[in-house]
Amino acid sequence: MEILILALVGGGIVAGGFCSYLAKERNRSAGGWFVLGFLFSIFALIAIAASPRSERTPHPAPGAKVQQPSRTPEQVAADDRFERWVLIVTLGFVAAGLIYVLIGGALGL
Question: pLDDT in tens for each of the 109 residues of the chain?
Fold first, then answer.
């Protein structure tokens, strides 16, 4: 029973990670899609994978001056490193799960 709970939570975290990554790539809420991915797994993955890229921009108050925040190359590089790290960790969890299933199936567990 504990293994089933661990598998469900682990699968939810993996699916949430993938949903979060895809949502960020599509200019959508990464945190919100993580929660949806955690709760609905493959259905949320299909939904975010099929969704188009959002071109939403915040609407300022009428007459307000809009100043775009400038990002340094270091900030951009840090974001890229973080995204790669999340993807690597997520793929590691998937690989560990597959190995566990294969070994458990071979041993009859």
Answer: 788 888 888 888 999 999 999 888 888 888 999 999 899 888 888 888 888 777 666 566 677 776 666 778 887 787 778 778 877 888 888 888 888 888 877 777 6
pTM of this prediction?
A: 0.51
State both tokens at 9: 């939570």
Closest CA to 36 of 55, 25, 22, 56: 22
Torsion of CA 16, 19, 20, 21, to 10 degrees: 130
CA distances from 14 to 20, 21, 37, 41, 100 (A): 10, 11, 8, 8, 15
Residue partners of 56: CB distance under 8 A and separation at least 6 = 27
Helix 42-50, helix 30-40: angle, nearest 10? 140
Tell me how far apart the alpha carbons of residues 10 and 38 are, in angstroms, rounded to a whole number.
9
